[in-house]
Amino acid sequence: MQSWSAPTVPTLPGPHETALRLHDSAARGLVAVAPTGTARLYVCGITPYDATHLGHAATYLTFDTLVRVWLDQGLEVAYVQNVTDVDDPLLERATRDGQDWRQLAESQIALFRADMAALRVLPPTELVGAVEAMDEISTTVHRLVDTGAGYPVDEDVYFPVSSAPHFGELSGLDDATRLALFAERGGDPDRPGKKDPMDGLLWRAERPGEPSWPSPVGQGRPGWHVECTAIALNRMPARQDAPRLDVQGGGSDLAFPHHEHSAAIAEVLTDTWPYATASVHAGMIGLDGAKMSKSRGNLVLVSRLRADGVDPGAVRLGLLAGHYRTDRSWTDEVLLTAQERLQAWRTGAARRSGPSAAPALASVRQALAADLDTPTALAAVDAWCAASGDDVSAPDEVAALVDALLGVDLT
Questions:
Q1: Paired residues of 276 in beta bridges
Q2: Which of 125, 28, 46 is nearest to 84 (CA)?
Q3: pLDDT per residue over 120-168, tens digit each?
Q4: If pLDDT is split at 50, 70 and 90, which confidence band does 89 have?
Q5: What pLDDT was estimated at residue 289?
Q6: Which of 161, 265, 327, 347 would bridge 167 by S-S if both were Cys, CB 3.0 to 4.6 A apart?
Q7: Residue among 42, 44, 51 at smallest CA distance from 293
Q8: Element holding 247 (H helix, E strand)
Q9: CA 360, CA 381: separation in Å to the nearest integer?
């Protein structure tokens, strides 16, 4: 699947020597993330049945910041992101609107690409749709069935969580909470015939009027969790005696059941635990006191802000002003503050001289290495802009560091 064009990332002076630490949901705290050679990142992508809202944007900006830190550290980055371009919400929306589900998906994927390009998000190395990966997903399901980690319920196929010894460790939730979240987030704990209420769907047998594909386990389409695992495992370079990913990422609403199940499936397929050195989850963006979501209809769309003439750089700064792990609200005040900050930064970068850029660069690097602390990084640039000095190269150097590490063009 075609991605979007990558902005040029400036190379910054001096080595980025501060060790990167990220909050790992499984460890419930910070862990060192120090890839060698190639950093491996998998982030769950969109289900393209509606436009990109600020909750999506905040998540992808989180991992864009991570990629920029890795690039500044001199690493190659293998970044894979999926697109769930066939799933119940997409089919339901297409039916509601009398539209072909393929056309709906294509239109929303195109809009997503445009939004990400406008926000200067670095594209993944591979953007992979479930439809184009259908053969490899169905083969993965067949492998699980062959190893006893897949069983039939009527004509569907389910993954027994009992086959994964570490199931439950990533989220660390009690049974009652897991059960409630599983039912709320697409699971079917009460389906008759399942061995365990937590067992997840691997393959949905063909239903009348729904798209389906041939597979060794019958005509149908995949469940969501195995889709991500198959796509990630087939594209990430494996390292001996190491997790298959350096970072598994997404919004905090994916920690359970999605990432828990994806990691469990990977454990069975690879006999490796943990699946990732760090499972990193971004907080939710709210509006009017509630999580921003399509089901609630309380969305602030990136495309609408762009159409209204809002500078994408201000949108980016508004989202980076809060720490990625915090649930936070988008308000008119947040946007106004971001617009004022962007103007102040551009004014500072346009000066003939300023204080040395070296301390600001060191402060931004140190902040981002400490669990992607963007509020502290932004404050370091604010401080540079508020100070004066006679270094004629500093404005260009600060513009480069802001571009490279924070993704904002000050020209």
A1: 245
A2: 46
A3: 999 999 999 999 999 999 999 999 999 999 999 999 999 999 999 999 9
A4: very high
A5: 67
A6: 161
A7: 51
A8: strand 245-251
A9: 6
- CA torsion 182-188-193-195 (nearest 10°) is -10
Q: What angle do CA 233, 281, 361 make, to 5 degrees?
A: 100
Q: Which of 154, 295, 137 is nearest to 216 (CA)?
A: 137
Q: Cα torsion for 53, 260, 89, 144, to the nearest 10°?
A: 140
User: b/e map of 200-211 (b: 16 or more CB within 10 Å)?
Assistant: bbbbbbeeeeee
Chain segment 354-398, per-residue pLDDT in tens:
999 999 999 999 999 999 999 999 999 999 999 999 999 999 999
Cα–Cα distance between 268 and 249 in angstroms, integer?
Answer: 20
Task: State how far Cα 298 lies from the chain centre.
Answer: 21
Among 65, 48, 162, which Cα is nearest to 115's?
48
Q: How far, rounded to the nearest angstrom, does the alpha carbon of residue 384 sit from its chain's CA centroid?
A: 31
Q: What is the DSSP letter of 388?
A: -
Q: How far apart are CA 404 and CA 13, in angstroms?
A: 11
Residue with tokens 């597979």: 215
Number of H helices and number of E strands within the chain? Answer: 13, 14
Sole residue written with tokens 């950093």: 39
| Strand boundaries in 198-244, DSSP class E | 200-205, 220-222
Task: Residue 60: name the closest of 227, 231, 250, 228 by CA.
Answer: 250
DSSP string of 293-307, one letter each residue: -TTTT---BHHHHHH
The pairing of beta strand 76-83 with beta strand 276-282: unpaired
pLDDT of residue 175: 96
Q: Strand order in 245-251's β-sheet?
A: 126-129, 76-83, 38-43, 245-251, 276-282
Question: What are the tokens at 188?
Answer: 């079917």
Burial of 62 (0-12, 13-18, 19+ CB in 10 A): buried
Helix (H, G, I), strand (E, B) or coil at 43: strand
At residue 368, what are phi and psi to the nearest 5 degrees? -70, -30
